[in-house]
């Protein structure tokens, strides 16, 4: 569906209610919330001014709107270190007109849909307890950190057909935001060091990030 995106916002758990209320005030009909855990090292946490790694991940469907992203950056103070990060990934379709009208309560803006993709969200699905193994692999290829949420897998017996092995039902999903040029090395490192042949049994994929707020790039700081 042209112009529809999934907004993913990651912030400290103490701010989850504040962020959810803000999105609802903008017209969002449904905001999904999942508890997460940051994977940044102690040194990175100190640098960003963060005291805890307990996170919340908020997800909602919305029409693509750079204006909304800019408003979130300003009103949620996303450029302040430790406040959080917001990203959008494209949605290709929504099933049914009623669901579309419910999830997308306002119209998409007329924007350049060929906007250059500078970042991608790398998603790793791994066995529970192996997040450190995944992140060690990702960091070896340049990843700075990630966020983990707990999940439960279904249909894991089908893995025997494809991989010749069974998979554990208890899973963790690791979200790693990366520059586009770093995506392939990070994914390759995860597959090599924590892939299906390891105890982590990780599956990894990526999605393009169309808009981003809360990540202060070094090159932008240099031009400030």
Could you characterize the architecture of this molecule?
With 224 residues, the chain is α+β, with helices and mostly antiparallel strands. It contains eight helices and nine strands. The chain has a nine-stranded antiparallel beta sheet, with helices on one face. The relative contact order is 0.20. The C terminus is likely disordered.
* Model regions low in confidence, pLDDT < 50 over at least 5 residues: 45-52, 217-224
Largest sheet: 9 strands, antiparallel
Helix share of residues?
25-40%
General shape: globular
Tell me the strand order in the biggest sheet: 8-5-7-6-2-3-1-4-9
The beta-strand count equals 9
Number of helices: 8
Q: Which percent band covers the strand fraction?
A: 25-35%
Order of helices and strands: EHEHEHEHEHEHEHEEH
Query: Would you tell me the structural class of the helices and strands?
Result: alpha+beta
Provide tags for this entry:
224 residues, alpha+beta, 8 helices, single chain, disordered C terminus, nine-stranded antiparallel sheet
Can you describe this structure in just a few lines?
The chain has helices at 16-25, 42-48, 66-75, 97-103, 131-140, 159-163, 180-194, 218-223, and strands spanning 4-12, 32-38, 54-63, 85-90, 119-127, 147-152, 170-179, 203-209, 211-213. Helices cover 31% and strands 30% of the residues.
């Amino acid at each position: 569906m042209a112009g529809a995106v999934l907004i993913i916002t990651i912030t400290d758990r103490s701010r989850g209610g504040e962020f959810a209320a803000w999105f609802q005030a903008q017209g969002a009909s449904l905001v999904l919330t999942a508890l997460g855990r940051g994977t940044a090292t102690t040194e990175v946490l100190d640098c960003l001014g963060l005291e805890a790694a307990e996170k919340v991940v908020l997800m909602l469907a919305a029409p693509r709107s750079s204006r909304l992203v800019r408003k979130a950056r300003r009103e949620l103070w996303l450029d302040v270190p430790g406040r959080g990060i917001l990203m959008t990934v494209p949605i290709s379709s929504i099933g049914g007109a009623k669901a579309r009208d419910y999830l997308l309560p306002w119209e998409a803006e007329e924007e350049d849909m060929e906007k250059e993709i500078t970042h991608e969200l790398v998603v790793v699905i791994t066995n529970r307890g192996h997040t450190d193994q995944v992140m060690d692999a990702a960091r070896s290829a340049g990843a700075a950190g990630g966020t983990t949420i707990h999940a439960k897998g279904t249909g894991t017996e089908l893995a025997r057909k494809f991989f010749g092995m069974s998979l554990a039902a208890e899973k963790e999903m690791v979200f790693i935001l990366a520059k586009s040029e770093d995506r392939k090395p990070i994914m390759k490192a995860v597959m090599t060091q924590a892939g299906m042949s390891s105890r982590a049994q990780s599956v990894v994929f990526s999605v393009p990030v169309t808009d981003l707020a809360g990540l202060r790039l070094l090159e932008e700081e240099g031009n400030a």
